[in-house]
Design goal:
The chain contains 14 helices and twelve strands. It is α/β, with parallel strands linked by helices and 376 residues long. Helix 4 packs parallel to helix 5. The protein binds pyridoxal-5'-phosphate. The site of pyridoxal-5'-phosphate has 13 residues, from helix 4.
């Protein structure tokens, strides 16, 4: 099977698994326990925090709270800081943010404001700034879009947001950026969400990176772990595995970035242009290529490709309900419903091989041409 749905999840890193195995077989204790075994685990978790943070941020300024996933980190950010006035986000956000904004609207005490996208999937920064006023308390702009792959310059955006209203808390969803594209967080970014399973870690492990001086209320209450900011016994194995996976990813991030970019372009060059149009631009993340087989249904192509040994994603919600059938992100970029209906998301990992790419080209061209013939 050729696997090109790495933006959904990645294969867990086996080297990291070997290194972390002792946290299941030997050091399985409760990291909050007072005995030596517990204290040793706290010190291992401290090392993991330092590894995960130091790759993208200044440790004197930032800290991290472990969460159960990227979704929880996003929820924690929104519900801790969007409490009054208005909150601003973008039309490109993952549902982990957009559903929270929907909830703000339902609750009625915060006015949610949604910024439109440019044609390439980045947020329209001028429109974003025009939505920020004295009453804005919280702004969330995703770093890398999970459908079209557009990269927002979050440091520059955060700087301009703070220049307009210095009291705003600025959050970014970095789930598709962390461990994949090179960057360092500036001090204008207050909160940043990451997730393990997008970079070879395990599902069910994430973190909210935050500015140390920012006081945050807990979303999950109980035993007071994570300094009272996120209760629940820490998933020591999952966290250590995340840190080891991150070490591996960051050790060759730039080389991987270039190599994966080459593979993305080879794939695009090999696709039949009578069938496929490209929606992702070249300056987006190399890890995602969004194409559309215009006039065909992406979901049908996904199943046809699956039968031939290729796993890909669609950007759409895969629903027969007309309101949710089309990817809202693709529509927000200005593409029509026909284009949105034909979308296939091809997403890579550093483990993707040249053979995978050649195999994917053959299968995608075969299924695209076959379905086009059937539709005539
Ligand atoms: N944010 C983005 C941009 C994502 O792509 C995803 C997962 O697809 C999430 C948040 C949610 O992360 P998790 O699966 O860890 O909850």
């Amino acid at each position: 099977m050729i696997y090109l749905d790495n933006a959904a999840t990645t294969k867990p890193c086996i080297d990291a698994f070997r290194r972390a195995e002792r946290f299941i077989t030997e050091q399985f204790h409760n990291p909050s326990a007072l005995y030596d075994e517990g204290r040793q685990l706290q010190s291992e978790l401290k090392k993991a925090r330092s590894v995960l943070l130091s790759k993208v941020a200044d440790e004197t300024w930032f800290e991290c709270i472990f969460t159960s996933c990227g979704t929880e980190a996003d929820n924690h950010a929104v519900f801790s800081f969007a409490k009054r006035g208005n909150a601003v986000t973008t039309a490109g956000e993952h549902s982990a943010i957009s559903a929270c904004f929907h909830e703000l609207k339902n609750k009625g005490n915060v006015e949610p404001r949604i910024t439109p996208l440019l044609a390439d999937g980045r947020v329209d920064v001028e429109k974003l700034l025009s939505l920020i006023d004295d009453k804005t308390t919280f702004v969330s702009v995703m770093h890398v879009n999970n459908e079209i792959g557009a990269i927002n310059d979050i440091n520059a955006i955060a700087r301009r947001v703070k220049a307009k209203n210095p009291r705003v808390i600025f959050h970014s969803d970095g789930v598709q950026a962390y461990g994949k594209i090179p960057y360092r967080l500036s001090k204008d970014v207050d909160l940043y969400s990451i997730s393990a399973h997008k970079i070879g870690g395990l599902k069910g492990v994430g973190a909210l990176i935050k500015r140390k001086s920012l006081v945050i209320s807990p979303l999950v209450m109980g035993g007071g772990q994570e300094s009272g900011r996120r209760s629940g016994t820490e998933n020591t194995f999952g966290i250590m595995h995340f840190a080891y996976s991150a070490e591996k990813k960051f050790s060759c991030l730039k080389e991987d970035f270039e190599r994966v970019r080459g593979m993305r372009e080879t794939l695009w060059n090999g696709l039949d242009k009578d069938v496929y149009v490209r929606l992702s631009t070249e300056d987006g993340t190399p890890y995602i290529l969004l194409v559309s087989a215009k006039g065909l249904r992406g979901e049908v192509l996904l199943h046809m490709a699956n039968d031939k040994g290729l796993i890909v994603g669609t950007g759409s919600a895969c629903s027969s309900n007309a309101k949710t059938r089309y990817s809202k992100v693709v529509l927000a970029c200005g593409f029509d419903e026909k284009t949105a209906d034909g979308v296939l998301r091809l997403s890579f990992s550093p483990e993707t091989t040249k053979n995978d790419i050649q195999g994917a080209i053959t299968i995608l061209n075969e299924v695209g041409r076959e379905l086009a013939r059937r539709m005539k």
